[in-house]
Amino acid sequence: MASSAHNACFNSHFFTFLFKIFLGAFLKRLSLNKGINSTF
């Protein structure tokens, strides 16, 4: 039981970690697109 609960906790932390990376890359790309659009 403890191992499965530990696994669930690890999975949730892993997915939030991936989500933060994905969100950061998405925001960076979005800001780059905005910068390009504002210059032209």
Descriptive report:
The chain is mostly helical and 40 residues long. The chain has one helix at 2-39. The protein has one domain (1-40). It starts with a helix and ends with a helix. The chain crosses the membrane at residues 12-30. Keywords: Membrane, Transmembrane, Transmembrane helix.
Uncertain ranges:
none
Derived from helix and strand composition plus strand pairing, the structural class reads mainly alpha
Can you count the beta strands? 0
Radius of gyration, CA atoms, in whole angstroms: 17 Å
Helix proportion: over 70%
Helix-strand pattern: H
Distance between the termini: 59 Å
Instruction: Give the amount of beta strand, in percent.
Output: under 5%
Main sheet specs: none
Count of separate structural domains: 1
> Can you give the mean pLDDT?
83
- Quickly count the helices: 1
What general outline do the C-alpha atoms trace? rod-shaped
Name the assembly state. single chain
Transmembrane segments: 12-30
Keywords: Membrane, Transmembrane, Transmembrane helix
